[in-house]
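Anyone up for a design puzzle?
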């Protein structure tokens, strides 16, 4: 928590709730870079980013950044609001002021093949992503889980999400053990999303089917707390959705047979 003293070490008093006197954070960051002697590309590589892994995308997925709908800009919600107000793009411009979408060339525009009842292949793919998924491992092992796009993931009871949030935050503050491995980046991102209570269906599935050892060693109290919270979600929430998932599975099997 901020102490009231500016963290750059100048000796001045910072405002309540702030770490720095206005502008001193920029000076402190520049001074630290000078002492470390590393340029930005070097710091990015040291942190695990670069051409193969976007630091901006990581901030969007893990730190609450958001992307502009009208251009490639990304930043905090407050910065995005300022960016939009500044008129830097057409994200919020009236429809009649925006450029109309380019019409596809008549020779290159190929209509997507339609399936039975006029449904496209992409429509089938979207439908299948909501199909029930059998859990073969993890806290939900042996259960039938809703698909990644199923609306039931938005209805996980608040007390379960709050219990998971606390355990998830503790597990990644700081990140330790298996979650530090590059191959577990997606799982780490899902744990961080749970700590913010802003999870997608795909992240729910990833957490509920991840093996216990993926979160930490058998002696890790933090990993055990998270896994127990996931077991509660599996027991209390999925039992109410398994019957619905079963009906969805039967519907999808019927559609597949009809196709």
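Challenge accepted. My sequence:
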């Amino acid at each position: 928590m901020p102490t009231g003293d500016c963290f750059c070490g100048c000796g001045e008093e910072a405002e309540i709730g702030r770490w720095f006197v206005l502008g001193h954070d920029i000076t402190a960051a520049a001074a630290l870079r000078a002492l470390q002697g590393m340029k930005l590309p070097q710091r990015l590589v040291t942190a695990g980013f670069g051409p193969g892994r976007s630091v901006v995308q990581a901030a969007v997925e893990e730190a609450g950044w958001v992307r502009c709908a009208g251009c490639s800009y990304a930043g905090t919600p407050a910065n995005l609001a300022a960016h939009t107000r500044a008129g830097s793009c057409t994200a919020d411009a009236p429809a009649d002021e925006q450029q109309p979408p380019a019409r596809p060339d008549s020779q290159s525009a190929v209509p997507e093949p339609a399936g039975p009842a006029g449904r496209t292949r992409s429509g089938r793919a979207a439908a299948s992503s909501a199909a029930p998924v059998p859990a073969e491992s993890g806290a939900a092992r042996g259960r039938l889980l809703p698909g990644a796009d199923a609306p039931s993931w938005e209805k996980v009871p608040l007390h379960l999400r709050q219990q998971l949030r606390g355990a998830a935050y503790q597990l990644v503050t700081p990140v330790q053990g298996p979650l530090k491995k590059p191959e577990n980046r997606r799982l780490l991102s899902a744990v961080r999303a749970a700590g913010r209570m802003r999870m997608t269906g795909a992240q729910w599935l990833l957490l509920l089917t991840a093996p216990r050892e993926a979160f930490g060693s058998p002696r890790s109290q933090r990993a055990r707390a998270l896994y127990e919270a996931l077991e509660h979600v599996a027991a209390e929430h999925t039992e109410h959705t398994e019957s619905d998932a079963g009906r969805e599975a039967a519907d999808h099997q019927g559609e597949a047979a009809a196709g």
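A detail worth pointing out: The longest strand covers residues 66-67.
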